[in-house]
Structures are given as C-alpha cells and as structure tokens.
Model the fold of this input.
Amino acid sequence: MSPKESAAIAETAAPGLAPVVIPEYLQKTYWWAYLHPNAVRIFERQWLVNLILWGNFARLRDAALQEMGDVIHGKVLQVACVYGDFTEHLLRRLAPEGQLDVVDVAPIQIKNLQTKLSRPSQVRMLLQDSTELHFEDASHDAVVVFFLLHEQPAQARRKTIAEALRVTKPGGKLIFVDYHKPVASSPWRYLMVPILSTLEPFAMDMWRGEIADWLPAGVPFTKVEKQTYFGGLYQKVVITR
Ligand SMILES: C[S@@+](CC[C@H](N)C(=O)[O-])C[C@H]1O[C@@H](n2cnc3c(N)ncnc32)[C@H](O)[C@@H]1O
Done:
C-alpha cells in the first residue's frame, strides 16, 4: 500500500466496521477545501461561507431547517458537515428529547464539528461515507443534505441520494439544498459557469439534471417538492417518504 493510499484510510467508523476511506473525488478535487488543516482554518468563518453563497447562507439554511419545523422532534440525520452555523442552528431547534446524527467521511471535519457546537451532548458525530451509511432502513425521522450533491461525481451522488432515502422513515422528510440552473435573465447563469467549472467539476450536473431524476427505482415515496432561490441558482428539494 502506498503512503497516499494508507493516508486515505481514515479510521474505523465504529468497532467491527470496515475503515472509512476518503473518496477519490474528495482527495483530488476538494482536498484544499475540506481535508487540509489550513482548509478548516480558512473556511470555518461564517462571513466567508455566506460570501461563497452570495449572501444566501442564512436564507438557505433556514429554508432547509424550517422543513422540519420551529421545534424539531425525533431523530435527525445531517449528511456531511457544513462550515458555519448550519448544525448549530439545527441543534437550537432540536427538542430536548430529539437526537441529531451528523456523518462525514473526513476525520478533520468531524473533529472541527466537535469544537463548534454549544450542546454537543445531543449530537452523535460519526465517521461515515454518505454512499454507504451505517444505519438501519427507516432509522431517521428527517434527513438533511446541504450542498453535498454538487461535490460528488454522478455515481456517488446517486448512492448518496439512495442511502439518504433508505434511512428516512415512511412519512419523514428528506431535504436537499444545492445548486440549480439559474433562469435565463439571471447574471449568475453566466457568471457561475467559469467558477463552478473550474473549482467544482461535478457541480454543473446540478444544472443539467433534477434531483428527482436520480432517485433509486423501487423505493416508494409520496411527494417531491422543489423550490428555487436567488434567480434559480439554488434549490431546495423535499422528498416525503
Ligand atoms: C456538505 S459538503 C459542502 C458544504 C458547504 N459547501 C460548506 O460550506 O461547508 C462538504 C462536506 O462533505 C463531506 N463529504 C464529501 N463527500 C462525502 C461522503 N462521501 N460522505 C460523507 N461526507 C462527505 C466533506 O468531508 C465536507 O465536510
């Protein structure tokens, strides 16, 4: 095994489970944003993540969280860490008996999350790959995936969606917030192309396809609702199982 390969194996997700391996797309494309120690130092700033979303961070965060209500009951899963105060705001809405699981494939992201929450006792922070979640079917009342899909190549994206749906209880909500193709009159339709194409090679897929098109066959759900924001550059898709 080469040093690079051994470095890619992070640590065991839980006793008895296979080691979690950092996916190749994350190593190659996003090491500078999520894996390098300087990444966390640079990007863990609310103003910066808000700037990256052109001032829409709070609006999109609250749109996702409001799907679960002012007070969130039951068991919630957040798939992948998010820089800034997304998880803290989720936690503030969580009822005293509620439970939050946050999974991420990068140990440095899990460690960072551990340092920034006000009530960590209500949160389980778990090293897991979104394409192979270690939860039972229908284990969570709500699942939220905030800006992860556009960072994943097609195959990983489909698996993430399938896994997120699998662990959502019947009647529960699966909430995605991500990029979307802006309307023709929006300047972002043109300005974002070089930015996304250069820095985020899989992101333009979100412009070409619909999240609903990537749902797995054979898993029943009752409703798909989509809302777009900021001239269509962002979308929220809510699937009710
Ligand atoms: C949610 S996404 C992007 C969020 C947003 N751009 C932000 O401001 O943080 C970033 C996170 O996804 C994680 N991630 C990427 N691929 C993953 C996978 N297959 N399983 C779990 N976490 C993954 C990265 O380690 C990183 O912490």
